[in-house]
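Hi there. Long-time user, first ticket. I'm pasting a complex I've been working with (about 796 residues overall). I'd like to know whether the download I got is complete or cut off, because the file seemed smaller than I expected. Thanks.
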Amino acid sequence: MQENNKIDNLKYKAASNKALSRDELIIESALKLFSKLGFENTSMQLVAKEAGVSKGNLYNYFNSKDHLLESLLAHWAKKNIELYSSGLNYGLKSVDDFENLVRYNFKLIKSDKYFWKLYYNLAGQPSVNKIFMKVFYPFKMKYILGFSNYYKHKGIENYNAKATLLVSAIDGVALSYIMMINNEYPLNEVLNELIKQYK
Amino acid sequence: MQENNKIDNLKYKAASNKALSRDELIIESALKLFSKLGFENTSMQLVAKEAGVSKGNLYNYFNSKDHLLESLLAHWAKKNIELYSSGLNYGLKSVDDFENLVRYNFKLIKSDKYFWKLYYNLAGQPSVNKIFMKVFYPFKMKYILGFSNYYKHKGIENYNAKATLLVSAIDGVALSYIMMINNEYPLNEVLNELIKQYK
Amino acid sequence: MQENNKIDNLKYKAASNKALSRDELIIESALKLFSKLGFENTSMQLVAKEAGVSKGNLYNYFNSKDHLLESLLAHWAKKNIELYSSGLNYGLKSVDDFENLVRYNFKLIKSDKYFWKLYYNLAGQPSVNKIFMKVFYPFKMKYILGFSNYYKHKGIENYNAKATLLVSAIDGVALSYIMMINNEYPLNEVLNELIKQYK
Amino acid sequence: MQENNKIDNLKYKAASNKALSRDELIIESALKLFSKLGFENTSMQLVAKEAGVSKGNLYNYFNSKDHLLESLLAHWAKKNIELYSSGLNYGLKSVDDFENLVRYNFKLIKSDKYFWKLYYNLAGQPSVNKIFMKVFYPFKMKYILGFSNYYKHKGIENYNAKATLLVSAIDGVALSYIMMINNEYPLNEVLNELIKQYK
DNA sequence: TATGAATGAGTTTTCATTCAT
DNA sequence: GATGAATGAAAACTCATTCAT
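Hi, the file is complete. Here it is re-exported in full:
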């Protein structure tokens, strides 16, 4: 569980950026709305209003709606990928490392529901697929690789397939959890099961 | 593998309805476009053009875009749910039954990529969440229940959690497979792994 | 009050036409809807549905929406003008004749609210002004003339102006009565006053 | 006749606002067209064109056609009700007051034909009845009350009925005058008669 | 005569984006 | 940087009317 603390410290630093710059403010507002209404159903007008900024001024920071989205994703990635993947950087060296990483990831997902709702909104949206892939493909590959190495070291034969399956399963669990309206998804039980099965 | 054949026969019958009625034609066109462009980015105009029908006439068949979507999903469900879930109806009685069902499901998904792309497009779209849930929630529950019973009979303790995890994993695999552009996703390997793990 | 009975008999005859021909049926349906929704806001579709007739068939009877309106008005006029103006045909020879006619007119208006709502809907609609005038201008002129003669015989100086004012006043009272939603208009009191003043 | 002058001064001031703000310009254009073509038959497109403004921009000022209408009426009311009812504010204390008020009202109606045509267009339009009533019902009630008090002070028994009749008669006269195409309506004679009768 | 599918122009409304201030 | 008026293209939807059957 030490790992966990290390990661929590990182989180703490990230969260302590109190004063938001204007563009961060716009991004936060956009995230909130894109997440709630979907990207296509959120107008720039609304983003401006939410951010307390004029419509015209939006375009001084982001020169199109697509660019705003791209920046949002990039900004999120910059702030969070370290968090999400820090456990991977030094390799997963034990079952505990594995469990910590997975649990920690879902902890982050839980605390960042806005973002993950948007994530799955975009994942299925052909029109923004490129923007989406540009940011998340490398990230997902890094994850698969991390788990792949873990399984390889454990001497598991189809380490690649197993890692790919695991990442897809995590995706599926997160999707189901995020999309379920009344918090009906039994995340904890499923998570225990997942760890038991994949560790 | 007999099961498989039975199901394939059903599929064959369904596919052999050659002459499409006008509303089916519209639905097919809508599916194609919703799938390619996303629901929000497909205009009724475009659906009409694709179906070779005037915009106004569309509304003689479906009185709104949402209703078109709902009908599309319902139509798909009517034609396919039997296919997808027939393996569940008499219970999964053996590991073979399990494997057949899962493999068969992915076979169907592979051959119905249009639809499944739309499925994951809608899954993340808050604006149509109700329509989506109305059709697919009961379907997914039936699946979870089917697997749950399977695990229960096998004497597995957390049969519910395991079934839920499995269905989420299937979702995740399908999502990844469907969204990957260049068919890069190693579906067969992942599928083998999944069956090995969950059977 | 004998007059009244004579007129009521006429009314009775008119009302006893039980079996409506197809075009009358359409006209009745149109009247009902035009009255409730306004002419512009009633679609031919809706008229067809209300009449239990197909949209296409409507056009076998009336070759346009305007023509349907014109026919409706003409049909009403044919059936009702006799009723409304019968009191005028032999001249108003006494104060009783006057009172009977006016009261009788409002009795008819009360029992024909549908029509009069449409009447005032059309009266202010520039787009159908011609159709409207074509039917009602002569009718109104006949009324003014009738009252004009009445006042002339009574030796009143400005008999024309007085008759015109009376007819306008009747119009105004009927308009207010018809348009008032909750039957708030004190029709009886106003009518008594009108008769006292103009007889 | 002093009263009259006071009121004329007010009118003069109101009319001397030369430079129209953009929303006033739109309202003026809408009034012109609604009046000429009827509310239902005037498209927002046309209003935009008449105002020399883009269709989209219209919606920066009024967020729907109904709202444009409501604003138009409210704007008119704000500018004019004082004018129309100023004679009532201090009570009608003499026959002269009465005559002045009525004549002055028709003077205003004559000079504001656009508006009054729209008024009677809306009066009969069920679809906008609520908007219409919201603005004019209180105004009309104030009028009835004003005349009611006048008759009460004169010791007339059915002062309420008489006032209601008068206001309806004024409505009827105005309606007839406004709707008559070739200025055939003998307004002056009718007005003299009305004043003689109701003063 | 009867049907209702089909049309296409029209309606209200939205929205990303630009631009003068 | 900041504003919000302005634009124009496009969206969903309606409707009088026509026409093949």
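A couple of notes from our side: The first helix of chain C runs from residue 2 to 15. Residues 22, 53-57, 60 of chain C lie near DNA strand E (CB under 10 Å from a C1').
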